[in-house]
Amino acid sequence: MHRAYKFLLRPTVRQAQALGEMLRDHCSLYNAALQERRDAYRHLSRTSVKYGQQSAQLKEIRALDPERQGRWSFSSQQATLRRLDKAMQAFFRRVKAGEKPGYPRFRGVNWFDTVDFPRDGDGCRWDSTPHDPVTRVRFQGVGHVRVHQHRPVKGRVKTVSVKREGRQWYVILACDEVPAEPLPATGAVTGIDMGIAHFLTTSEGEHITNPRHGKRNTEALAEAQCALKAFPRRKRENRSARHRRAVEKVTKLHRKVRRQRTDHAHKTALAMVRAYDVIAHERLSIANMVRAPKPKPDPEQPGGFLPNGAAAKAGLNKSIHDAGWGVFLDILTHKAESAGRVLIPVDPRNTSRTCPACGHVSGENRTTQEKFECTRCGHTANADQVGALNVAIRAGLVLPDVA
Question: On the CB side of 192, how many CA atoms lie within 13 Å of its CA?
């Protein structure tokens, strides 16, 4: 199994300054490599620059600028160039697929927050000595940084990353060969339906409340963002301390919502894998679900458009993002693998419109958000439970005639 561990770093003032300089210099390397690719492509020869060519230049770059580039790990700089190469490959893949290209952009210092070390022991060293109460991680050019290790690390540390979130620093360990921890069998199976009114509903009729963390913090976040927009646009060197505090307040609120959403997903997923041996869920394509509706040109008025429900769809999209379905399903997948549980994804089409008793499919079956009433056989039930029951039926966990 593969697993990632995230721990809070406790650097000294000088170490925090060195970590900031490391991010700044890797950001500079990323932007310079991107500029080289842009210039080469705009040349009359249409030259294409690859990762191998830019990686071969690192030795010369480090020799010419030992103060900024020569002090950091060679492998971490290669990882930064690979990061750019992946972004370029994704760009060309989207172009070939006819999608919106989204050319890679230059990164500002505040938008470059992670440095990767491809192998433990090459430019970094995770030092977790059993008899030493203080855990440290060593980064080249920074030194040994104290780590708040709140749980043991299992498996073999493969890669190490350092990440900045606001004023806090974190180390992320990607481990492989992590032993599984199977849970005792319960003999229970279920299907789950993800929703807005209820975060999750099982085929047995159990509802898990949607916490709506983003909505509960909307007022505080709007107030902080309004205070931030009140400052005039200035260059970084001319920004005041009040402006920096306003930025930190917005960042802190966003981080709070993200942590609350992740914590709820972890606790809910753990409860599910403890209670059920087999869990069926909808194979959701969230990117398509939150896509904005296309404009409808008005044939009678040139240049005008017909109503397309964009405002209502925007509210629904915001609720879907706030629920965090994708985060929950990813966490549920990892926890099920570790616990030895089985997850079965099924086709989500018409799960809330199909009658589990007779199989009749109609949009009129769902009369309201909560009520389901079949127009053929008259079967009535909670709409979310019907969706979860249809998911279980499609996964083969429940027979239609038994439902």
Answer: 27
